[in-house]
């Protein structure tokens, strides 16, 4: 045998293989599929039934305000929660160990997760929006510009959520304890980020904590796509803050990926 | 064992530099020394077995060589590079049969192999791999439904998929039935016929004897002996035990020259039988047990 062999496949090619694999694995986990797609719809039905008569700041019907929040929550669920839980489980069962032994670049592994999350997010939203439109008379984004806003907010939010999931999966402990931590964090973030209640009604310190995490910006960005232009006056900053939304979510994605790629652990215990 | 295998003993020259070279390898975990100064050379084309009881440090040693575990001290070269710093091109030349599972329980066997084929520039054809490890009939079975032994076979297929120059087999046949074990042994022989160097860990003596050119016995973090299987514990093996009954009791003489002891014994009783007369030499297992210092042994 000689040492002259072709170079290993590029990170991009492995990333592509990973996206296909992740989608295939996800589609075979029936419970996960059902939960991911049904959760936002079920929440929409429940909350609208309870709070149907409520109005939000600026005379916005509850369902309209809530759609932005639940769309954001749904995205966090399929990105942050699913990715974090799956990585912890894959580390525990030795799936990651094999990837490490094959010399898989962490970036290719992350890209596989991100690709799967983006596709899942698109399907989830494609199921949720018609329910809101035809079941609860929630107006869809007003024009192309608002649809585009909806698109980039959803995509950037899903990517930021993926990175947060990768980061959280690095916490010590068994897959079970990581998944408990993720559920707890997701729940707290939902309340802090103005998903269920108007963000302005929250105490200042909660608003400040929430501003550090992607969900608050994702929710606010969704409101900017679904609510009338004038409703921006009721945000904390008196406007939609698109620039800052891009900045915070973008920072999560870029800084997060760099930090995660350097600190990623393929196995439990010391390396 | 034959003379060609003896020619690969350390100290003798072999073609090219060693594939694996260890000097003074040390590794401790909090409160426990796992590897206490290992020295070893494994040559190209050789099959070397690390033999030892559970907890002797076999897996830790192999993980250091694979570059997935840090060492505390010592120099390590695998395929000419330090595993702690080597990159993907180096890793592509290694194959590892790990103890963990494949890609996901919900994936089929063939799907798993097809998927991982995309990680390497030189994959062996999936059909050929399936046949080689005896999983052709399970090609469409989901990994989650495989038996323990079948999963090990899949791990073996994944380990050799990239046509590696050096293969690490960490307890590869644990959980396999005897038929699967023999099939696996044949697979290792086929690999070696292609010039692949093999480092194997096992706690099965017969497996080490069957496959390895040389065996290193690892006990308490040290290599207590390195030798071809037939020469393992040569000093211990030279000692025979002559035993017989005498005056209602059992007499035993341990000696390197059983014939001389027998001649003397027979001379004292020229016309009678010697009751219960036995001459025994220690088997491989007895040698192994005394090498690793196991209490009680088999007798």
Specify the number of helices of chain B.
Answer: 11
- Pairing-aware structural class of the strands and helices of chain B? alpha/beta
The succession of helices and strands of chain A, N to C, reads HHEEHHHHHHHH
What is the typical, i.e. mean, pLDDT of chain A?
89
Computed structural class of chain A: mainly alpha
Percent of sequence in beta strands of chain A: under 5%
What about the largest sheet of chain A? 2 strands, antiparallel
* Shape by Cα distribution of chain B: elongated
Q: What proportion of the residues of chain A is helical, as a percent range?
A: over 70%
Q: Count the helices of chain A. How many?
A: 10
General description of the model:
The complex is a heterodimer of chains A (271) and B (299). In chain A, 71% of the residues lie in helices and 1% in strands. Chain A is mostly helical. Chain A has one domain (11-263). Chain A has a two-stranded antiparallel ribbon with strand order 1-2. In chain A, a hairpin with a 3-residue loop joins strand 1 and strand 2. In chain A, helix 1 (11-28) crosses helix 5, helix 5 packs across helix 6 and helix 6 (144-168) packs parallel to helix 10 (242-263). Chain A starts with 10 loop residues before the first helix and ends in an 8-residue tail after the last helix. Chain B has 299 residues and is an alpha/beta fold. Chain B has a domain at 240-281. Chain B contains eleven helices and twelve strands. In chain B, the strands form three sheets. A six-stranded mixed β-sheet of chain B has the order 5-6-7-3-8-9, sandwiched between helices. In chain B, strands 2-1-4 form a three-stranded antiparallel β-sheet, covered by helices on one side. In chain B, a hairpin with a 2-residue loop joins strand 8 and strand 9. In chain B, helix 5 crosses helix 6. Mean pLDDT of chain B is 85; it is low at 1-13 and 295-299. The A-B interface holds A 1, 3, 5-9, 13-14, 17, 21, 24-25, 28-29, 93-95, 97-98, 100-105, 266-267, 270-271 and B 66, 68-70, 79, 87-89, 91-94, 96, 98-104, 106-107, 111, 115-116, 118-122, 158, 165, 194-196.
């Amino acid at each position: 045998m000689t040492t002259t062999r072709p170079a290993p496949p590029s990170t991009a090619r492995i990333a592509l293989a990973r996206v296909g694999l992740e989608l295939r694995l996800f589609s075979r986990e029936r419970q996960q599929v059902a939960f991911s797609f049904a959760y936002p719809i079920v929440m929409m039905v429940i909350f609208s039934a309870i709070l149907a008569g409520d109005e939000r700041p600026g005379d916005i019907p509850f369902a309209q305000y809530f759609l932005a929040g639940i769309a954001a929550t749904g995205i966090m669920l399929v990105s942050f929660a699913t990715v974090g839980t799956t990585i912890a489980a894959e580390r525990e069962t030795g799936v990651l160990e094999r990837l490490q032994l094959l010399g898989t670049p962490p970036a290719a592994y992350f890209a596989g997760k991100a690709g799967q999350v983006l596709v899942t997010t698109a399907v989830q939203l494609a199921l949720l929006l018609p329910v809101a439109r035809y079941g609860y008379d929630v107006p869809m984004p007003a024009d192309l510009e608002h649809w585009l806003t909806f698109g980039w907010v959803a995509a950037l939010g899903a990517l930021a959520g993926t990175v947060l999931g990768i980061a959280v999966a690095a916490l010590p402990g068994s897959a079970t304890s990581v998944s408990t931590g993720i559920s707890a964090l997701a729940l707290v973030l939902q309340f802090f980020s103005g998903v269920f209640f108007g963000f302005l009604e929250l105490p200042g310190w909660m608003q400040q904590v929430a501003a550090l995490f992607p969900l608050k910006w994702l929710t606010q960005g969704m409101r900017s796509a679904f609510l009338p232009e004038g409703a921006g006056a009721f945000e904390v900053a008196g406007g939609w803050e698109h620039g800052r939304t891009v900045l915070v979510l973008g920072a999560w994605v870029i800084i997060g990926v760099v930090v995660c790629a350097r600190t990623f652990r393929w196995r439990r215990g010391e390396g | 064992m034959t003379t060609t295998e003896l020619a690969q003993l350390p100290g003798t020259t072999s073609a090219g530099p060693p594939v694996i070279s260890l000097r003074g390898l040390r590794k401790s975990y909090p409160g426990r020394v796992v590897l206490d100064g290992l020295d070893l050379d494994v040559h190209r084309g050789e099959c070397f077995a690390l033999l030892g009881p559970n907890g002797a440090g076999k897996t830790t040693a192999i993980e250091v060589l694979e570059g997935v575990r840090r060492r505390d001290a010592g120099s390590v070269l695998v395929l000419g590079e330090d595993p702690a710093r080597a990159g993907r091109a180096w890793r592509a030349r290694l194959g590892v049969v790990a103890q963990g599972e494949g890609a996901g329980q919900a994936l089929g066997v063939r799907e798993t192999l097809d998927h991982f084929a995309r990680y390497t520039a030189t994959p062996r054809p999936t059909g050929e791999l399936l046949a080689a490890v005896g999983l052709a009939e399970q090609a469409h079975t989901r990994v989650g439904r495989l038996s323990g032994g079948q999963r090990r076979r899949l791990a073996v297929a994944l380990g050799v998929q990239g046509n590696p120059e050096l293969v690490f087999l960490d307890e590869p046949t644990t959980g396999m039935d005897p038929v699967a074990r023999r099939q696996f042994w044949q697979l290792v022989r086929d690999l070696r016929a292609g010039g692949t160097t093999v480092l194997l860990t096992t706690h099965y003596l017969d497996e080490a004897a069957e496959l390895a050119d040389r065996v290193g016995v690892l006990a308490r973090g040290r290599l207590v002996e390195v030798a071809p299987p037939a020469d393992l514990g040569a000093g211990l093996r030279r000692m025979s035990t002559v035993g017989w009954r005498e005056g209602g009791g059992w007499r035993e003489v341990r000696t390197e020259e059983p014939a001389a002891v027998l001649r003397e014994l027979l001379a004292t009783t020229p016309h009678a039988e010697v009751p219960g007369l036995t001459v025994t030499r220690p088997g491989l297992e007895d040698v192994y047990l005394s090498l690793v210092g196991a209490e009680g042994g088999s007798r």
